[in-house]
Specification:
Blueprint: E1 4-8, E2 11-16, E3 19-24, E4 28-34, E5 39-44, H1 51-56, E6 76-78, H2 82-88, E7 94-98, E8 101-104, E9 112-114, E10 117-120, E11 123-126, H3 129-141
Antiparallel strand pairs: 1-2, 2-3, 4-5, 4-8, 5-6, 7-8, 9-10, 10-11
């Protein structure tokens, strides 16, 4: 199986180290650049789907939502740089907040936001000056879903 990241119908497919991870885009909390920008950690709230689960389109039942649940989830490694990933992700749902981070806008309903950082449980994501204005403008116009994911 080759290394690959692709997005189809609001789902991300990550092939890496002989495994296929399938994840709905709205389960992503944020993506973090690592390994000299050659790989990405994809931090998620819900457990990953296996290819068997993906075929049924049934998600495993999530544990109760809360800021600290996400700290227990191991991130998925995606073989792609953050700039390339930013081009693949839908711009209306994701925002670059730092040269190291891309965040899913829908996940911000569970975060504490300060002018220069976002707090998710024990994670502190810095908002750089380079991306702050665009991010804050996008945040003002983003409509959060009233349903729980």
């Amino acid at each position: 199986m080759k290394k690959e990241v692709r997005i189809e119908e609001n789902t991300i497919y990550i092939s890496y180290e002989g495994k296929l991870c399938v994840k709905p885009l709205n389960d992503i909390l944020f993506c973090e650049s690592c390994c000299h920008n050659s790989e990405i950690y994809v931090h998620t709230l819900k457990p990953l789907l296996t290819p068997k689960d993906a075929g049924t389109h049934e998600l495993p039942l999530p544990k109760p939502a809360g800021l600290y649940y996400l700290d227990a989830v191991k991130p998925v490694i995606a073989p792609i740089g953050i700039n390339s990933l930013a081009l693949l992700l839908p711009g209306d749902l994701f925002a670059r907040i730092h040269r190291k981070y891309i965040i899913y806008m829908g996940s911000l309903k569970d975060a504490y936001i300060e002018p220069d950082k976002i707090l998710y449980g024990n994670y502190v994501l810095r908002i750089s000056r380079e991306y702050a204005d665009e991010f804050l403008d996008k945040l003002k116009h983003f409509h959060f879903s009233s349903k729980t994911d």
